[in-house]
Amino acid sequence: MAQEGTRLPPPVGAEPGSRSQAGAAGRAEPEPEPEPAAGLGGESCPEHGLELGWFCAAHRRPVCAQCARLGGCRGHRVTALEAKAADLRNKIVDQCEKLQLQSAAITKYMAEVLPGKNQSALNAASWAREVVIQRLIFVRNVCENEEQRLLEKVHTEEERTHQSILTQRAHWTESLQKLAALRTYLVDMITNLDDHGLVHAEQEIFERTEAAEGILEPQESEKLNFNQKCVQSPLLHQLWASAVLSCATGLEEVHVDEKTISPLLALSEDKKTLAFSPKKTKPYPDCPERFDHWPNALGTQAFHKGTHAWRIRVDKSCAYKLGISYGSLQRKGPGNAARLGYNPFSWVFSRYDKEFRFSHNSRHQAVELVKCPAQVGVLVDLDGGEVLFYDPTACVILHSHREAFTAPIYPAFAVADQSISLVQ
């Protein structure tokens, strides 16, 4: 049966207004069937040879009346092909109107919006350049003023040291002259006086000798040393650390020495990540360089002089140590001699849960932080004698320590929770 509202084509061979013989007796004459719809310019159905005047919605194709009533499209919704074409034309017209409106909107956007955006971008770029220039001029002026201030302090300290040395030189020159004169006097007394005269001059000899006893031997004095603290400047310190650790060209290509890795640690394939594993499942071969108790590892390269820096991602770990150590750091056993920060051979910044501190030779200094750093930079100035820990994201110095390093240093790592990774 056809769906509700479907117009079925007339049966093949039926004349409009005719009645069926079987239903002629006792029934009213039915409404005449509609005329066949117009076809596709004479195209005919290949199955029934009739004109294609109808459209089957199910098959989405033109069909003849016989296909719709008795053929393959029986029971499908069919409409007159002419009506279908008219509906399609209306839809195409609507689509053309939409395309026209869309084109008009694009044209207006290109004519009105884009030029304004372009001008806005030009203005914003000009403003950004001006900001960069003005801020760098300001920073440059501040740096120049700081440079002048520090150079003046260096000059003043140099003059003070020089003047102290001159004063000491004059003092000790005078003392030498007094001692030489006294010695000459005493030699003269011994040489030229007889026993009677020597005894008679005893009081004079005692007084002159007693005066010489007030001349003490030279002692070490800080006044004669140049005070390196005169160049300490929070601004210079901050700018220097930021410039080294925020610039990729200032960072070292640090690698973990696999011979030192504790059995509690696993090194990733890219040699950048150290992960903690409390079960000691990693089958590392034992060797003298390997830590066998503490979860430590050292870098491959030793630094002898100059400035060196590297960064470590630490946001995945709540227990780690980062810093430097001498190569003479003990590797075996559970004692403090092999524990980073608990001996004279290592300097480390550490985290345990929410607690941060700097440790060296079992002396621990708490580091108060507002938030946990995602990365920690380690900067070592071997010539200047300083190790510094820095947060490159916040551009904040976490801690700095001065030390006269007496041997080459190695990057040092320890992790007891999750993992840490070198940033290369």
TrEMBL record:
- Region span, Disordered: 1-43
User: Can you tell which superkingdom this protein's organism belongs to?
Assistant: Eukaryota
Family matches, as PROSITE patterns? B302_SPRY
Positions of the B30.2/SPRY domain: 234-424
The record's section on InterPro entries has:
B30.2/SPRY, B30.2/SPRY_sf, Butyrophylin_SPRY, ConA-like_dom_sf, PRY, SPRY_dom, TRIM/RBCC
Positions with biased composition (Low complexity): 17-27
The record's annotation in PANTHER family points to:
E3 UBIQUITIN-PROTEIN LIGASE TRIM (PTHR24103)
Please give the name of this protein.
Answer: B30.2/SPRY domain-containing protein
